[in-house]
Design goal:
Pfam families: Esterase (PF00756). This is Enterochelin esterase. It comes from Insulibacter thermoxylanivorax. The protein is built from 9 helices and 10 strands. Strand 5, helix 6 and strand 6 form a beta-alpha-beta unit.
Length: 243
């Protein structure tokens, strides 16, 4: 089998100045095969954009889904992060967390929608993230539910602050979330300490279910690594795009 066709794709690099963050932020944008500015497309917005493209191979997966499996074409927007500021941006306790949410839901969204043929309803936007990227994606949806109602979480760092935010909600029937966690993620080392992500995700699963979220939850053997997430990304995309 020739895989050459999966690597012939269009990825555009952009940058915008964020007033909220006071800095330039880089984007990388996957345009599907046959992209037509007169059409419109669902869109996946990824935290850790560089990692989703380079380690998650999301563009290759998207191309194959579109060309070989009849999935309707979609656009991917990867929002790059300064790794030194990642916790400050993504963690609910982070110094720039609220400003990052403002940048993402207002500045970045406006920038993309004024330049690309993306669909602009909440049901046609998916937020995707790994670890703390999953955390901030869920919080963006909770804070901006008129704009975002679908979340793809790969081993989300759903710790105390996130569980408290969910506990404040009485009805999450508007939310669709794909939640993947590895069975080997019981002692994940982070710059904030070592945490049992498996237990945290099990708790969040229960809370989301009680609040009637549209939920796909899956536990599989796997560590807190892109080698695990990359293999499961296709299923999460397929499930959310069909909602």
């Amino acid at each position: 089998m020739s895989y050459e066709k999966y690597y012939k794709r269009t990825i555009v690099k952009e940058s915008l100045y964020s007033t909220a963050l006071g800095e330039e932020r880089s984007l990388r944008i996957f345009l599907p095969p046959g992209y037509n500015e007169l059409a419109s497309y669902p869109v996946i917005y990824c935290q850790d954009g560089e990692q989703f493209f380079n380690y998650g191979r999301i563009a290759t997966t998207a191309t194959r889904l579109i060309l070989d499996e009849g999935i309707d074409p979609f656009i991917i927007v990867g929002v790059d992060v300064n790794l030194k500021m990642r916790t400050d941006d993504y963690a609910p306790e982070g110094k720039r967390f609220n400003r990052y949410l403002q940048f993402f839901a207002e500045e970045m969204l406006d920038f993309v929608e004024n330049r690309y043929a993306v669909r602009t309803t909440a049901d046609e936007r998916i937020l995707a993230g790994d670890s703390l990227g999953g955390t901030v994606s869920l919080h963006i949806a909770l804070e901006h539910r008129d704009e975002f109602r679908k979340v793809l979480s790969l081993s989300g760092a759903f710790l105390t602050s996130t569980q408290q935010a969910i506990a404040e909600e009485s009805d999450l029937s508007w939310l669709s979330i794909y939640q993947l966690i590895g069975l080997d993620e019981q002692a994940v080392q982070t710059d904030r300490g070592t945490f049992d992500f498996l237990a945290a995700n099990r708790s969040v699963r229960q809370m989301l279910s009680e609040r009637k979220a549209d939920l796909w939850y899956e536990e599989k053997p796997g560590e807190h690594l892109w080698g695990f997430w990359q293999k499961e990304l296709e299923h999460g995309l397929r499930w959310l795009l069909a909602r």
